[in-house]
Amino acid sequence: MRLVRFERQGQTRIGALEGDQVVDLNDGDPDLPTDMVDLISKWSDDAVAAASERGARHALRDVRLLAPIEVRKNIIAVGKNYRDHAAEFSKSGFDASEKQLIPDDPVVFTKAPTSVIGPGDAIVLANDPTGTTDYEGEMGVVIGKIAKNVSKEDALDYVFGWTIVNDVTARDLQKRHVQWFIGKSPDTFCPMGPAITTRDELPDIRESWMTTTVNGEQRQHAPISALIFDTETLIATLSEVMTLEPGDVIATGTGLGVGIGFEPPVYLESGDVVEVSIDGIGTLSNPVK
């Protein structure tokens, strides 16, 4: 199932995306939570399936899609997780924290919840005073249940589903402050969506590819299978020291082709449209202003 949060007639609802229609799950079962984190925490295959059969259907054009999760905590993100992107990042000179080209262990940082926006919402350049705003298309892992001290072998059992994250970055801020949090967290710098595809519908995300375009021009095209540290490794590494909770999102890293990889760098400009697509999840599209 491809789950979405959407707004219609001033109400926020949870739906199932089916082609060009959205099924209102809260209409199909008024007892289902209207908050995605709560729905994930209390998930019932039978209840959601029944709601999808009974719920009212709306044309996608008649609703406004929101970020699929109303994020309560920082987004957990992973840097330098594709070899070719690690090389282009190193060459760009923007990684002030670099100690080696290819990391031996995951490079983990976070993005503030206030950076999250939904499909169609604008990436606002004014939030980056340096004028060095860049895109990073990524696959996001959505945690489905409490995970602590999880082994790699069991890690996928804790995955609820997959989404798309655009890890928009203010490059000069990322370099200036060394630790990446400020450069990664300006308001509107974490587009997410359009949906969460549940793991049962997309059991092997490694078969999918991630593609990013700017104004229709392909900039990134990378297989999820090329991640240096895969989903299982990331969950095992994180859960060894912290408790992962339902609704937590892990952005797993970007591939070759970001703006700072060009000579000279090519930053986002007002009027641009950035689209990130992943097979089995959909396309996350955001204008830049």
Notes on the protein architecture:
This protein is of the alpha+beta class and 289 residues long. It has two domains: 2-66, no CATH class; 75-287, Fumarylacetoacetate hydrolase, domain 2, CATH 3.90.850.10. Helix content is 17%, strand content 32%. It has helices spanning 25-28, 36-41, 45-54, 83-92, 171-176, 181-184, 231-239; strands at residues 2-8, 11-18, 21-24, 57-59, 64-66, 75-79, 107-111, 116-117, 133-134, 137-143, 159-166, 169-170, 190-198, 209-214, 217-223, 249-251, 273-278, 282-287. The strands form three sheets. Strands 1, 2, 3, 4, 5, 6, 7, 8, 10, 11, 13 and 16 form a twelve-stranded mixed beta sheet that branches. A hairpin with a 3-residue loop joins strand 17 (273-278) and strand 18 (282-287).
- Profile the largest sheet: 12 strands, mixed
Following the backbone from N to C, one meets helices and strands in this order, namely: EEEHHHEEEHEEEEEEHHEEEHEEE
CATH superfamily of the largest domain: Fumarylacetoacetase-like, C-terminal domain
How many distinct helices?
7
So what's the CATH class of the largest domain?
Alpha Beta
Cα-based radius of gyration, to the nearest Å? 18 Å
User: What is the strand tally?
Assistant: 18
Nutshell version of this structure?
Helices cover 17% and strands 32% of the residues. With 289 residues, it is an alpha+beta fold. The chain has two domains: 65 residues, no CATH class; 213 residues, Fumarylacetoacetate hydrolase, domain 2 (Alpha-Beta Complex).
